[in-house]
Amino acid sequence: MPDISLIILNFNNAGLTRECVKNFKNHSTAATLEIIVVDNSRDTALAETLRMRYPDVVYIPMKANVGFARGNNAGIARATGRYIAIVNYDITPLPGALDGFMRYMDERPDVGIAAPKLYNPDGSVQQSYYRFHTLLTPFYRRLFVGRFQFAQRNLDSFLMRDADMSKPQDVDWVLGAFLFVRREAIEHVGAFDERFFLYFEDTDWCRRFHISGWRVRYLPHIGLLHLHLRDSAHTMGIRALLHKTTRTHIISAWRYFLKQWRGGYKVNREAS
């Protein structure tokens, strides 16, 4: 059994996916790694490159773009590691990252998900940790009313601006760009909810981990580089509805709040 199974989901970016695989292959670590590439694009050139250069990488072609949750679930179902890392193809590991995650999780068996500090290419830090949304949070983030003081209080809380994030912290949820997850916790909680095609699947997963008794931790002493572009945030207000990824984000938010309203977040008693 490998120590860590890395699941990299490709969609229309074979170049970054190849670089991601190469960077993790070259990453110095004491852990044994299993790398799984799930391809939502069925990119034959990517498949051939992986076969020639990295024959030990597990390649899973999907029949179509099945989304973030379902694609990663295909990787989770195939993974054999003690820990499973959900890895965006635009992630690059910094020195000591995987060993740091494994050491931290080995020492804290109550932690189900751990996430790193994410850096932009210019060295600035990305926002990657949050409190759970209120019903109004998505509107405050997208509409002009977010500039008012009452909305800013909501957003400051959502972005945890009152917390000391210079040390490891329990958080409500973390960005799904890189999630280091305990296999035992996934077996308890379940995989991603495939009703979320894109966006809010990370929020939903973290909420389910919390409800099932697993901690979600932000680890600022472990860093990764993330070439991040928020496709859903190109425009604001009504114009945003014309942007496909923004509409997808809104649909996912609706499904998340509807699931919450219907009592969809309950402890998995059957798996306990």
Labels describing this entry:
alpha/beta; two-stranded antiparallel sheet; 272 residues; 9 helices; globular; Spore Coat Polysaccharide Biosynthesis Protein SpsA, Chain A
Please give a structural write-up:
With 272 residues, this protein is of the alpha/beta class. The protein has a single domain, classed as Alpha-Beta Complex (Spore Coat Polysaccharide Biosynthesis Protein SpsA, Chain A), CATH 3.90.550.10. Helix content is 35%, strand content 22%. Strands 1, 2, 3, 4, 5, 6, 8, 10 and 11 form a nine-stranded mixed beta sheet that branches. It has a two-stranded antiparallel ribbon with strand order 7-9. Helix 2 (44-53) links the parallel strand 2 and strand 3 (58-61). Helix 1 (14-25) packs parallel to helix 2 (44-53). Residues 267-272 have low confidence and may be disordered.
List the helices and strands and how they pair.
Blueprint: E1 4-10, H1 14-25, E2 33-39, H2 44-53, E3 58-61, H3 68-78, E4 83-88, E5 91-93, H4 97-107, E6 111-119, E7 129-130, H5 137-142, H6 149-158, E8 169-170, E9 173-174, E10 178-182, H7 183-189, H8 201-211, E11 215-226, H9 244-261
Parallel strand pairs: 1-2, 1-4, 2-3, 6-11
Antiparallel strand pairs: 4-10, 5-11, 6-10, 7-9, 8-11
Helix pairs in contact: 1-2
